[in-house]
Design a protein that fits this description.
By secondary structure, the chain is α/β, with parallel strands linked by helices. It has a domain of 65 residues. The protein is built from 7 helices and 10 strands. The structure holds adenosine-5'-diphosphate (ADP) and magnesium ion (MG).
């Protein structure tokens, strides 16, 4: 009788929603952007990623988004191995991720409602569902009254809240934010960070790349510090490490 042949798969505990093992990334030119990065993030964690410009933070985000593949090492997200993930499965994989960038990236000619609804249309949620989901998500981010406004009619903080609503409308288990407050004043920065904290407290795993040392020091979350492509510290309830 033939034995069942098992393909060799590595058991990744379900509680570890993001695992990087010895991840390196070299671009075609220049020094490697990441070298031998090991990082494990548990389901439900809130993690700040800090470090000088050029230390590899955005490269890390792009690897998680599967915009880039590592030169070396393995990346597992929500149980999937991103290195072996087939190209045709990338769109489905990305449904695990909400993403927010410094520059908002809204559709300029669409109003707030349409910007958020669009993310649901892409994944073919029925219109009657969208009509319920969008207003409720807009009220979570405090924009219920602005659904008809175009992005140019909104402040930076409001635009980022639209981007956040769009990132979360399909209820991804992971939210990735690359310098979400980089274009905002301190008051709006705090409002966005408090929203991220609330979202995390309801169960979403949240990764935030930031330069905002006051917020990092105040919020007392896990802080991963990068320098020249390596993780130089990783502290629970950490603070922003001052250079020099
Ligand atoms: P950070 O987000 O921390 O500022 P990045 O991940 O953007 O850092 O960049 C890390 C390093 O990789 C930098 O030295 C940067 O110049 C380089 N880099 C980033 N993107 C590219 C690219 N597309 N091609 C070549 N080098 C790049
Ligand atoms: Mg960056």
């Amino acid at each position: 009788m033939a034995l069942f042949k098992r393909t060799k798969t590595k058991a990744i505990p379900n509680e570890n929603i993001i695992v990087l093992e010895k991840v390196s990334k070299a671009y075609a030119t220049g020094a490697p952007a990441l070298t031998g990065v090991d990082l494990t993030i548990k389901r439900g964690e809130f993690v700040f990623i800090v470090g000088d410009s050029g230390s590899g933070k955005s490269t890390l985000i792009k690897l998680l988004l599967r915009e880039l593949l590592p030169t070396d090492g393995d990346i597992y997200v929500n149980g999937q191995n991103l290195v072996t993930l087939k190209r045709r499965n990338v769109p489905k994989y990305r449904r695990n991720l909400g993403v927010v960038f410094q520059d908002f990236r809204l559709l300029k000619d669409r109003n707030v409602y349409e910007n958020v609804a669009f993310a649901q249309r892409v994944v073919q949620i029925p219109t009657r569902e969208i009509k319920k989901n969008v207003p409720s998500m807009l009220s979570v981010v405090g924009l219920a009254g602005k659904y008809k406004a175009k992005p140019r009619q909104l402040s930076g903080g409001e635009q980022q809240r639209v981007a956040l609503a769009r990132a979360l409308i399909n209820r991804p288990p992971i939210l990735l934010c690359d310098e979400p407050t980089g274009n905002l004043d301190p008051k709006n920065s705090w409002e966005i960070m408090k929203l991220l904290d609330q979202i995390n407290k309801k169960g979403t795993t949240v990764l935030v790349v930031t330069h905002n040392r006051e917020i990092v020091n105040e919020m007392q979350k896990r802080v991963v510090t990068m320098k020249k492509g390596v993780i130089v510290s990783d502290e629970e309830k950490g603070g922003y490490i001052d250079e020099d």
